[in-house]
Amino acid sequence: MLKDKFERIHDYLRISITDKCNLRCSYCNPVDLPKGYFSGRTRMTAEEIEKIASIFVSQGINKIRITGGEPLVRKDIRNILERLAKFPVELAMTTNGVFVHEFIDTFKSIGLKSVNVSLDSLNSKSFFKITGRDEFERVKKNIDLLLNHDFYVKINMVVIKGENENEIIDFIRWTKTNPVHIRFIEFMPFAGNSWSSNKIFSYAEIMDLIASKFDFEKLQDNVHDTAKKFTVKDHIGTFAVISSMTQPFCNGCNRLRLTTDGKMKNCLFSKHETDILGALRSGKDILTLIQQCVLKKEEMLGGQFKPSVQNIDASAIKNRSMIDIGG
Ligand code: SAM
Fold first, then answer.
1. I need a labelling partner for 140 at 20 to 30 A (CA). Which of 89, 122, 134, 237 fits?
2. Atom 4 in ligand 1: which residue has the minimum CA distance?
3. Whole-prediction pTM value?
4. Is the pLDDT assigned to residue 38 strictly greater than 80?
């Protein structure tokens, strides 16, 4: 069992399988990322991902999320999914949705039930402005495709003040006749993403805005949920807020992360990384390293800041960019 010094048991692993992405979302990619960027980092092979995952699973990990970069741009993604699907875990994926139509059969054959799709706008022009790519129609069609094939679809919408908070109501309207589960995410600071506290559209602001137009009710949250869930009366979909910045949920955290270059992070905001891939390649004992990494987990937000957002100095936070960590 992977328990930290605050008695939190970790049973959820997020594996980033690539740091490449076909979109250029401003909040995720470092602003100075050159065209055709490739980090050149060593990457875990499919076999190494399976080997490392097996050790986590032997310690009680029962959920694995594949993320990136964009996981569906990795050429051997099918091979990776098939290897991970053999474990007794709930397998999930976060994707930008652009290539989903090419993988529906694979998703079904490996038993994937739930797919998170990132979508920050329901308007093709502002989608282009945020992502730098003209892929809105394809993503929207692919979300419909997932719904038609009965996948449980969560939509991740990063809310950035002055950019897309004016679309929150449209996202709620979408839940009226579509079984989509919208998650409004507070904008978080990462290397090179031009974060500042006045760009956060907070949990409180999101709820006030929605309350001005809709009657909604609270849904039951689970102990490890990052999202506070709600539903509008008579809507078949739901909405939730991931209040990472103003009301973090570190108390119930059960997550660990593996970057595409095989570094373990015990928190999205941890500055410390443990080189699991290097250890695997040189025949060292990985399990002890994993346990030590869990024990180093800080109580809150990687020990790097407090949820008093006005006082955060983003330049003092030591971390990678989100595309490089794996969201
Ligand atoms: N490419 C995939 C995708 O687009 O979903 C997976 C990787 S992406 C890094 C995972 C999630 O992180 C996305 O839902 C994205 O919106 C979220 N994300 C990235 N940067 C963020 C930030 N600065 N604040 C909040 N969420 C962020």
1. 89
2. 96
3. 0.95
4. no
